[in-house]
Protein backbone atom coordinates (compact mmCIF):
# COMPACT_ATOMS: atom_id res chain seq x y z
CA UNK A 1 0.00 0.00 0.00
CA UNK A 2 1.37 3.42 -0.97
CA UNK A 3 1.77 6.33 1.45
CA UNK A 4 -1.14 8.17 -0.22
CA UNK A 5 -3.39 5.11 0.06
CA UNK A 6 -2.46 4.73 3.72
CA UNK A 7 -3.33 8.38 4.42
CA UNK A 8 -6.63 8.05 2.55
CA UNK A 9 -7.56 4.89 4.41
CA UNK A 10 -6.66 6.42 7.77
CA UNK A 11 -8.77 9.50 7.01
CA UNK A 12 -11.79 7.45 5.93
CA UNK A 13 -11.66 5.12 8.91
CA UNK A 14 -10.78 7.53 11.72
CA UNK A 15 -12.21 10.79 10.44
CA UNK A 16 -9.76 13.30 11.86
CA UNK A 17 -6.38 13.79 10.27
CA UNK A 18 -4.79 14.67 13.60
CA UNK A 19 -5.56 13.48 17.12
CA UNK A 20 -6.28 16.13 19.77
CA UNK A 21 -3.11 17.76 21.08
CA UNK A 22 -2.36 19.04 24.59
CA UNK A 23 -4.35 22.23 23.97
CA UNK A 24 -7.54 20.30 23.25
CA UNK A 25 -7.02 17.93 26.18
CA UNK A 26 -6.50 20.93 28.49
CA UNK A 27 -9.69 22.52 27.20
CA UNK A 28 -11.66 19.35 27.87
CA UNK A 29 -10.57 19.51 31.51
CA UNK A 30 -11.17 23.25 31.89
CA UNK A 31 -13.94 24.32 34.29
CA UNK A 32 -17.19 25.36 32.60
CA UNK A 33 -16.41 23.74 29.23
CA UNK A 34 -19.61 23.02 27.34
CA UNK A 35 -21.80 25.38 29.39
CA UNK A 36 -23.72 28.50 28.48
CA UNK A 37 -24.85 27.66 24.97
CA UNK A 38 -21.42 27.28 23.42
CA UNK A 39 -21.14 25.99 19.87
CA UNK A 40 -19.49 22.56 19.89
CA UNK A 41 -16.78 22.28 17.23
CA UNK A 42 -14.64 19.39 15.97
CA UNK A 43 -11.48 20.28 14.04
CA UNK A 44 -10.18 18.04 11.26
CA UNK A 45 -6.77 19.12 9.94
CA UNK A 46 -4.41 17.35 7.58
CA UNK A 47 -1.24 18.12 9.56
CA UNK A 48 -0.13 19.13 13.04
CA UNK A 49 0.64 22.74 12.11
CA UNK A 50 -2.87 23.35 10.74
CA UNK A 51 -4.43 21.54 13.70
CA UNK A 52 -2.44 23.57 16.26
CA UNK A 53 -3.15 26.86 14.52
CA UNK A 54 -6.88 26.27 14.31
CA UNK A 55 -7.14 25.10 17.93
CA UNK A 56 -5.16 28.16 19.05
CA UNK A 57 -7.56 30.47 17.23
CA UNK A 58 -10.69 28.89 18.71
CA UNK A 59 -9.84 27.57 22.17
CA UNK A 60 -9.92 30.84 24.09
CA UNK A 61 -13.21 32.13 22.67
CA UNK A 62 -16.12 31.79 25.11
CA UNK A 63 -18.54 31.02 22.24
CA UNK A 64 -16.73 27.79 21.35
CA UNK A 65 -16.34 24.36 22.92
CA UNK A 66 -13.74 22.24 21.14
CA UNK A 67 -14.68 18.57 21.00
CA UNK A 68 -12.04 15.81 21.26
CA UNK A 69 -11.88 13.10 18.60
CA UNK A 70 -13.67 10.47 20.68
CA UNK A 71 -16.73 12.72 20.93
CA UNK A 72 -16.58 14.35 17.50
CA UNK A 73 -19.95 12.94 16.40
CA UNK A 74 -21.75 15.21 18.88
CA UNK A 75 -20.25 18.42 17.47
CA UNK A 76 -22.63 20.96 15.98
CA UNK A 77 -19.95 22.12 13.54
CA UNK A 78 -17.08 20.23 11.90
CA UNK A 79 -14.23 22.38 10.56
CA UNK A 80 -12.07 20.73 7.90
CA UNK A 81 -8.75 22.55 7.45
CA UNK A 82 -6.70 21.66 4.36
CA UNK A 83 -4.35 23.10 1.76
CA UNK A 84 -6.64 22.00 -1.08
CA UNK A 85 -9.58 19.69 -1.74
CA UNK A 86 -7.98 16.37 -2.69
CA UNK A 87 -9.24 12.77 -2.66
CA UNK A 88 -8.59 12.28 1.05
CA UNK A 89 -10.50 15.48 1.84
CA UNK A 90 -13.45 14.37 -0.28
CA UNK A 91 -13.59 11.03 1.56
CA UNK A 92 -13.63 12.84 4.89
CA UNK A 93 -16.34 15.26 3.74
CA UNK A 94 -18.51 12.37 2.58
CA UNK A 95 -18.07 10.65 5.95
CA UNK A 96 -19.02 13.81 7.83
CA UNK A 97 -22.03 14.25 5.57
CA UNK A 98 -23.54 11.07 7.01
CA UNK A 99 -23.85 12.74 10.42
CA UNK A 100 -26.96 14.84 9.85
CA UNK A 101 -26.67 16.57 13.24
CA UNK A 102 -23.34 18.19 12.27
CA UNK A 103 -22.77 20.92 9.68
CA UNK A 104 -19.43 21.03 7.87
CA UNK A 105 -17.29 24.06 7.09
CA UNK A 106 -14.17 24.08 4.93
CA UNK A 107 -11.11 26.25 5.64
CA UNK A 108 -8.94 25.83 2.56
CA UNK A 109 -5.70 27.28 1.27
CA UNK A 110 -6.40 26.98 -2.45
CA UNK A 111 -9.90 26.45 -3.81
CA UNK A 112 -9.97 25.31 -7.44
CA UNK A 113 -13.00 26.29 -9.50
CA UNK A 114 -13.74 22.63 -10.18
CA UNK A 115 -14.02 21.98 -6.44
CA UNK A 116 -17.31 23.90 -6.27
CA UNK A 117 -19.32 20.92 -7.54
CA UNK A 118 -17.52 18.65 -5.07
CA UNK A 119 -18.34 21.03 -2.24
CA UNK A 120 -22.04 20.93 -3.16
CA UNK A 121 -22.11 17.14 -3.43
CA UNK A 122 -20.38 16.78 -0.04
CA UNK A 123 -22.86 19.03 1.73
CA UNK A 124 -20.35 21.70 2.77
CA UNK A 125 -22.24 24.60 4.38
CA UNK A 126 -19.48 27.21 4.50
CA UNK A 127 -16.10 27.98 2.95
CA UNK A 128 -13.34 30.29 4.18
CA UNK A 129 -9.96 30.77 2.56
CA UNK A 130 -7.11 30.18 5.00
CA UNK A 131 -5.47 33.49 4.11
CA UNK A 132 -8.61 35.25 5.42
CA UNK A 133 -9.15 32.99 8.44
CA UNK A 134 -8.51 35.35 11.34
CA UNK A 135 -10.18 34.67 14.68
CA UNK A 136 -13.22 36.90 14.10
CA UNK A 137 -13.97 35.40 10.68
CA UNK A 138 -13.65 31.87 12.09
CA UNK A 139 -16.08 32.67 14.90
CA UNK A 140 -18.51 34.20 12.39
CA UNK A 141 -18.23 31.08 10.24
CA UNK A 142 -18.87 28.72 13.16
CA UNK A 143 -21.78 30.64 14.68
CA UNK A 144 -23.42 31.15 11.28
CA UNK A 145 -23.32 27.41 10.59
CA UNK A 146 -24.67 26.65 14.05
CA UNK A 147 -27.61 28.95 13.22
CA UNK A 148 -28.31 27.07 9.99
CA UNK A 149 -26.74 29.67 7.72
CA UNK A 150 -24.20 29.30 4.92
CA UNK A 151 -21.04 31.35 4.37
CA UNK A 152 -19.16 31.72 1.09
CA UNK A 153 -16.59 34.18 -0.26
CA UNK A 154 -18.23 36.58 -2.71
CA UNK A 155 -16.55 35.12 -5.79
CA UNK A 156 -17.62 31.57 -4.88
CA UNK A 157 -21.18 32.72 -4.25
CA UNK A 158 -21.22 34.22 -7.72
CA UNK A 159 -19.93 30.97 -9.22
CA UNK A 160 -22.53 28.98 -7.27
CA UNK A 161 -25.36 31.14 -8.59
CA UNK A 162 -24.00 30.80 -12.13
CA UNK A 163 -23.79 27.02 -11.63
CA UNK A 164 -27.42 26.81 -10.46
CA UNK A 165 -28.58 29.03 -13.32
CA UNK A 166 -26.72 26.86 -15.85
CA UNK A 167 -28.21 23.70 -14.34
CA UNK A 168 -31.73 25.12 -14.61
CA UNK A 169 -31.19 26.35 -18.17
CA UNK A 170 -29.38 23.37 -19.70
CA UNK A 171 -30.70 20.38 -17.76
CA UNK A 172 -34.03 21.14 -16.10
CA UNK A 173 -35.78 23.58 -18.44
CA UNK A 174 -35.63 21.25 -21.49
CA UNK A 175 -37.39 18.60 -19.36
CA UNK A 176 -39.97 20.95 -17.89
CA UNK A 177 -38.44 20.56 -14.42
CA UNK A 178 -37.43 23.00 -11.71
CA UNK A 179 -35.14 22.87 -8.68
CA UNK A 180 -38.20 22.40 -6.47
CA UNK A 181 -40.07 19.15 -5.88
CA UNK A 182 -42.67 20.21 -8.48
CA UNK A 183 -42.41 20.51 -12.24
CA UNK A 184 -43.40 23.82 -13.79
CA UNK A 185 -46.71 22.27 -14.96
CA UNK A 186 -47.47 20.88 -11.51
CA UNK A 187 -46.72 24.18 -9.81
CA UNK A 188 -48.95 26.07 -12.26
CA UNK A 189 -51.88 23.73 -11.69
CA UNK A 190 -51.58 23.90 -7.91
CA UNK A 191 -51.35 27.69 -8.11
CA UNK A 192 -54.64 27.71 -10.05
CA UNK A 193 -56.20 25.42 -7.44
CA UNK A 194 -55.08 27.88 -4.75
CA UNK A 195 -56.91 30.64 -6.65
CA UNK A 196 -60.17 28.68 -6.51
CA UNK A 197 -60.37 27.28 -10.04
CA UNK A 198 -61.96 23.86 -10.54
CA UNK A 199 -60.75 21.07 -12.82
CA UNK A 200 -62.53 22.25 -15.97
CA UNK A 201 -61.31 25.84 -15.51
CA UNK A 202 -57.73 24.70 -14.93
CA UNK A 203 -57.92 22.57 -18.08
CA UNK A 204 -59.12 25.58 -20.05
CA UNK A 205 -56.43 27.89 -18.74
CA UNK A 206 -53.56 25.41 -19.23
CA UNK A 207 -54.81 23.92 -22.54
CA UNK A 208 -54.76 20.41 -21.07
CA UNK A 209 -57.63 17.98 -20.88
CA UNK A 210 -59.54 17.55 -17.63
CA UNK A 211 -58.19 13.99 -17.42
CA UNK A 212 -54.63 15.30 -17.61
CA UNK A 213 -55.31 17.89 -14.90
CA UNK A 214 -56.76 15.21 -12.61
CA UNK A 215 -53.81 12.87 -13.31
CA UNK A 216 -51.23 15.59 -12.62
CA UNK A 217 -52.83 16.61 -9.33
CA UNK A 218 -53.23 12.97 -8.30
CA UNK A 219 -49.56 12.29 -9.10
CA UNK A 220 -48.46 15.24 -6.94
CA UNK A 221 -50.67 14.11 -4.04
CA UNK A 222 -49.39 10.54 -4.26
CA UNK A 223 -45.70 11.45 -4.61
CA UNK A 224 -45.72 13.92 -1.74
CA UNK A 225 -48.18 11.90 0.39
CA UNK A 226 -50.78 14.67 0.46
CA UNK A 227 -54.38 14.01 1.44
CA UNK A 228 -56.22 16.29 -0.99
CA UNK A 229 -55.96 19.44 -3.09
CA UNK A 230 -56.16 21.75 -0.09
CA UNK A 231 -53.28 19.85 1.51
CA UNK A 232 -51.30 20.16 -1.74
CA UNK A 233 -51.85 23.93 -1.83
CA UNK A 234 -50.79 24.27 1.82
CA UNK A 235 -47.66 22.17 1.20
CA UNK A 236 -46.67 24.19 -1.87
CA UNK A 237 -47.14 27.51 -0.08
CA UNK A 238 -45.23 26.44 3.04
CA UNK A 239 -42.27 25.35 0.93
CA UNK A 240 -42.31 28.39 -1.34
CA UNK A 241 -43.16 26.35 -4.44
CA UNK A 242 -45.97 28.64 -5.61
Automatic annotation (TrEMBL):
The keyword Amino-acid biosynthesis does not apply. The keyword DNA-binding applies. Keywords: DNA-binding, Transcription, Transcription regulation. Residues 175-240 form the HTH luxR-type domain. It comes from the Bacteria. Residues 1-36 are annotated as: Disordered. Signal peptide: none annotated. Coiled coil: none annotated. It holds the Pfam family GerE. CDD domains: LuxR_C_like (cd06170). Residues 1-16 have a biased composition (Basic and acidic residues). InterPro entries: Sig_transdc_resp-reg_C-effctor (IPR016032), Tscrpt_reg_LuxR_C (IPR000792). This is LuxR C-terminal-related transcriptional regulator. It comes from Streptomyces stephensoniae.
